[in-house]
Every structure is written in structure tokens, then in C-alpha cells.
């Protein structure tokens, strides 16, 4: 697999994790779909490509990025997707814990970040709150 294919696979994997989270609570949320499409656009992908990933998840394997920055970016996207519809479900929390652990993050750090998100449903997350948690655990 060449570099370009690897990068595309990483982006698809990123979106696949978001799609898994959106489906974790068995509810279709237009807000979650909007958020996923915004992330796709940021990653240089189209809504049609997101639909293709959603229709054929068996064609993908999860790719855990090697860089800490890329893993944190995915974790942030998962956390913000969880709260985007203003309804945090236990199945979403459980999936974020599993994915974060696979990406190498401590369960206690993940839980603290989830708590911050839950405390800020319906409003903006304080700018440095998640970053301060990361600093606490990454030093």
C-alpha cells in the first residue's frame, strides 16, 4: 500500500469510528450526521464517501494512527460527536472508552474527558479543559 492509499485508509478509519459512535445508541440523529460530514470535509472527504463507508463497514479495518496528535484528534472528534446531539448515552460512553483504550489512552483520562463533555451539554466546552486533562496524563 502506497503512502496515498495509507492516508486515505486512515481518514476512512477516522470516519468509521465516528459512524460506529453515531450508531451506538441505535438512534439516527441528523445532528450527528451533520457533525460527521463536517469532519469528513475537514479530512478532505465527501458526504458520498461517508455514505460508502457506512454502507460497507466490512471493507474497513480500524487503523490506529501512530502519532499522538492524530490519536488525540480522533478522540476529540469522538467526544464532541457524543455531545453534539445533546444526549449522552451509556453505549456511546462505553464505545469511546474501548476506542480510546485501543488508541493508547488511559481509562481515567478518557473518563475525565467524558465528564467534562457531559457537564457542558448545550454549551461550549471551556477552551483549556480537555487540554488540561491531556497535559495531566501525558507528562
Structure, explained:
There is one protein chain. It is built from 7 helices and no strands. Helix 1 packs antiparallel against helix 2 and helix 1 runs antiparallel to helix 5 (90-102). The chain has 139 residues and is mostly helical. It is 70% helix and 0% strand. It has a single domain, classed as TerB-like, CATH 1.10.3680. It has helices spanning 3-24, 30-42, 47-55, 68-84, 90-102, 107-119, 129-138. InterPro entries: TerB-like (IPR029024).
Summarize the model shown.
The protein is mainly alpha-helical and 139 residues long. It has one domain (3-138): TerB-like (Orthogonal Bundle). It is built from seven helices and no strands.
Which key features would you list for this structure?
globular; TerB-like; 70% helix; 139 residues; mainly alpha
Structural class: mainly alpha
The proportion of strand residues reads under 5%
Q: Report the oligomer.
A: single chain
Which segments are poorly predicted (pLDDT under 50) over 5 or more consecutive residues?
Answer: none
Number of strands: 0
Order of helices and strands: HHHHHHH
Could you outline the blueprint of secondary structure elements for this entry?
Layout: H1 3-24, H2 30-42, H3 47-55, H4 68-84, H5 90-102, H6 107-119, H7 129-138
Helix pairs in contact: 1-2, 1-3, 1-4, 1-5, 2-4, 4-5, 4-6, 5-6, 6-7
Amino acid at each position: 500500500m502506497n503512502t496515498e492509499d495509507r492516508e486515505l485508509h486512515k481518514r476512512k478509519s477516522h470516519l468509521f469510528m465516528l459512524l460506529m459512535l453515531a450508531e451506538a445508541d441505535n438512534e439516527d440523529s441528523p445532528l450527528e450526521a451533520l457533525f460527521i460530514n463536517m469532519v469528513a470535509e475537514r479530512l478532505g472527504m465527501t458526504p458520498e464517501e461517508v455514505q460508502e463507508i457506512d454502507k460497507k463497514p466490512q471493507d474497513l479495518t480500524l487503523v490506529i494512527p501512530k502519532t499522538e496528535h492524530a490519536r488525540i484528534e480522533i478522540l476529540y472528534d469522538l467526544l464532541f460527536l457524543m455531545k453534539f446531539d445533546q444526549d449522552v448515552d451509556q453505549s456511546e460512553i462505553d464505545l469511546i472508552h474501548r476506542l480510546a483504550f485501543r488508541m493508547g489512552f488511559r481509562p481515567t483520562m478518557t473518563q475525565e474527558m467524558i465528564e467534562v463533555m457531559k457537564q457542558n451539554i448545550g454549551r461550549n466546552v471551556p477552551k483549556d479543559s480537555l487540554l488540561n486533562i491531556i497535559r495531566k496524563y501525558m507528562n
